[in-house]
Amino acid sequence: MADTLTHKRARSALSPLGEPFNGWFATRGWSPRQHQLALLEKAEKGRSALLIAPTGAGKTLAGFLPSLVSLTAKNPRRNSPVREGPHTLYVSPLKALAVDIARNLEAPIEEMGLPVTIETRTGDTPQNRRRRQKENPPDILLTTAEQVALLISQPDAARFFSELEVVIVDELHSIVTSKRGDLLSLGIARLRQHAPNLRTVGLSATVAFPDDLRGWLAPQHAEDDTNLADLVVVEGGAKPDINILKS
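Below the sequence we write its predicted structure tokens.
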């Protein structure tokens, strides 16, 4: 009886995702974590959110999961001969991190056979690939704050960002405290002009003043208007596995 109840609870936890996500989690003996499902719920309601989670809690997958589900369930881009621009924009504080995240994201996309394309765009991206990305944009574009500033300054920016639905900012706490944070904040404000229903998601492991970051993620319409993104906090995380090797 206990095993049956456990199985039912696992299926209940997986049900919001649908296939092929349920099968992918099940084959690994995993179940989606509560904060991953919480971000999926926020996305369905069109809400921006700040996720505070320790290392090892799966916050990167949580950030991308709503995009993967949306692009898989109803992706008019799949059969469209022309794509104006990306669906999801991921902004990394480091270009090397953007490349690593793309590599890590390619594995579940390939394993589940998702109709989702991803590419990186950094200062190291060749010019011919940048041109191709403008002509045939990926569903998910992983980039940096500087590249966002360059993209929104181009004449076709309104067209390129017309289909943008979400901006994911990784290691948010390290970006907002610098000039790059100011640059990105202005960039996101401009992106909202091209995509009025744009959502933002901030991922962070360490936050001293979460309301400051929640305000940074949400549009502020007046000096006395305090609009905050939703907050999702994860307690605990993966336990460290420490071994001392004998010489």
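The first strand starts at residue 49 and ends at 52.
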